[in-house]
């Protein structure tokens, strides 16, 4: 009997997680559709603090640099042009770096053992 209770609670938990996942996907799609506008577009953004960031926004034909903070939104500069740059090179993968370092260390240890045996 206890097994059936545990199984029932497990099924309810899986159902709740499944419904929560699909609800957030539906709400996320709805939010992205509401943010689209024909006359306004966010070209770039950069966080400069916990609650502050910079935005480059194109409003109709004007390009503006905006500062956003808890105190409000401030127009910092009107830009003549804005060129989107390629993102910086991604840092190397941690696993790949660790693997290469371990292989290099193992090779040095193997060479040291071989060299030590030849001297004896």
Automatic annotation (TrEMBL):
Membrane-spanning residues: 6-27
Record Pfam families: FliO
Subcellular location: Cell membrane
Keyword annotations from UniProtKB, A to Z: Cell membrane, Cell projection, Cilium, Flagellum, Membrane, Transmembrane, Transmembrane helix
Organism superkingdom: Bacteria
Protein name: Flagellar biosynthetic protein FliO
Organism of origin: Enterocloster hominis (ex Hitch et al. 2024)
């Amino acid at each position: 009997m206890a097994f059936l209770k545990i199984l029932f609670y497990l099924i309810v938990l899986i159902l709740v997680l499944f419904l929560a996942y699909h609800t957030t996907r539906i709400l996320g799609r709805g939010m992205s559709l509401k943010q689209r506008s024909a006359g306004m577009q966010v070209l770039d953004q950069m966080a400069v603090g916990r609650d502050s960031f910079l935005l480059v926004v194109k409003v109709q034909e004007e390009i503006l640099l905006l500062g956003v903070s808890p105190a409000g939104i401030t127009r910092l500069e009107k830009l003549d042009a804005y060129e989107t740059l390629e993102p910086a090179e991604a840092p190397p993968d941690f696993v790949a770096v660790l693997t290469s370092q371990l292989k290099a260390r193992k090779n040095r240890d193997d060479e040291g053992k071989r060299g030590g045996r030849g001297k004896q």
